[in-house]
Design a protein that fits this description.
The chain is of the alpha+beta class and about 350 residues long. Helix content is about 45%, strand content about 10%.
């Protein structure tokens, strides 16, 4: 890999005695748009000590005040966490990224781009995908205090994460306000609006938001439309309106067929499980089994042949156009001489 550095830019750099030990390859992005691919030796008194490569004896330094951010080499722990994230195993990704964020000695440096703070940004996204409001709130509060340690392009935290945080705090009004702001995740916004509206007791509006989330969410991340549908079922059931029973029946069927592999979610109320089972029993009883045939085997019975009606079913005419009884020779009367 080609390494770039400019001595004129680093005119304040000073030569230091070589420091034993392994240096870390990094890319340093300076605020004046200069990029350096170097070996970082250490942080010291508000500056980064670096050298051109691992074989260089001379060590130089650059003040942190001139550094926009640093792209650190990803560790094997990070690659495992990132693999779990990309495969959709967000619970495992949370465990792995949490370990990286907690290991501040190895991953936390006083410069934007350090892996400890980046891991928290990943954790924020994982908790959003897991629909974990408390988990989002925890990472949001930490990132708010470490915002300056993120790369410049990542410092604008998503407004929906703030909506999750408000929801975790029980502030439905604030959550609703933030969820209605323009977003690049409209389905998540619909889901959050449903949660906030339900928190505020605006049940019919909440159902409308949940319906949008699970109707237009098919084919996306399944956890969001699945939970929107689950919450919609529970909310309608809690309203106790018998006129909405057909709506519950329809939603139970959708959940069972699309998300439950024929069943409802774990911990579903017993009366809803019973209602869903009744729907299956009714469906099964509406399909009549095939009737047994004459010898006892099942199958479609063959229709019985009926006698032909008068004037119908006559034999075909003879070649001369006469009926068979007229075309055939007549029998000789008894006692007549033989020919």
């Amino acid at each position: 890999m080609t390494r770039f550095f400019t001595l004129t830019v680093l005119s304040a750099a000073v030569a230091l005695p070589a420091i034993p030990g392994r240096a870390e390859p990094v890319t340093i992005f300076l605020k004046n748009s200069v990029t350096m691919e170097v070996d970082m030796v250490r942080f010291r008194q508000g500056q980064i000590d670096w050298r051109v490569d691992a074989n260089a004896a001379e060590i130089r330094s650059v003040p942190l005040s001139r550094v926009a951010w640093v792209d650190f080499q990803r560790s094997s722990d990070w690659e495992r966490a990132e693999s779990a994230y990309r495969s959709g195993n967000f619970a495992e990704a949370v465990r792995l990224f949490q370990a990286i964020a907690a290991n501040r000695q190895a991953h936390h440096h006083p410069v934007p781009g350090n892996l400890s703070t980046l891991a928290r940004l990943r954790l924020l996204d994982c908790h959003r995908r897991l629909l974990d409001a408390e988990g989002v709130a925890t990472q949001w509060k930490t990132l708010e205090s470490e915002r300056d340690l993120l790369p410049p392009d990542d410092r604008q935290l998503p407004s929906l994460a703030a909506a999750w945080t408000a929801l975790a705090a029980g502030d439905g009004e604030k959550a609703l306000e933030l969820a209605r702001e323009p977003s690049d995740s409209p389905l998540e916004a619909d889901y959050l609006q449903g949660r906030a509206l339900q928190e505020l007791g605006r049940k019919d509006e909440a159902l409308q938001s949940y319906t949008r989330a699970y109707t237009f969410g098919f084919g996306t991340l399944p956890s969001l439309p699945r939970d929107a549908l689950r919450r919609s079922i529970l909310l309608i059931d809690a309203m106790g309106n018998d006129q909405r029973l057909p709506e519950i029946h329809a939603q139970l069927s959708i959940y069972r067929d699309l998300y439950g592999d024929g069943a409802l979610w774990d911990g579903a109320p017993a009366h809803l499980v019973e209602l869903a089972q009744k729907e299956l029993d009714i469906l099964a009883s509406s399909v009549e089994p095939p009737s047994p045939g004459p010898s006892g085997e099942t199958g479609n019975p063959q229709p019985e042949k009926s006698a032909p009606a008068a004037g119908k079913g006559k034999p075909p005419p003879s070649p001369k156009g006469k009926p068979e009884d007229e075309a055939a020779p007549k029998a000789a009367p008894k006692g007549a001489p033989k020919a």
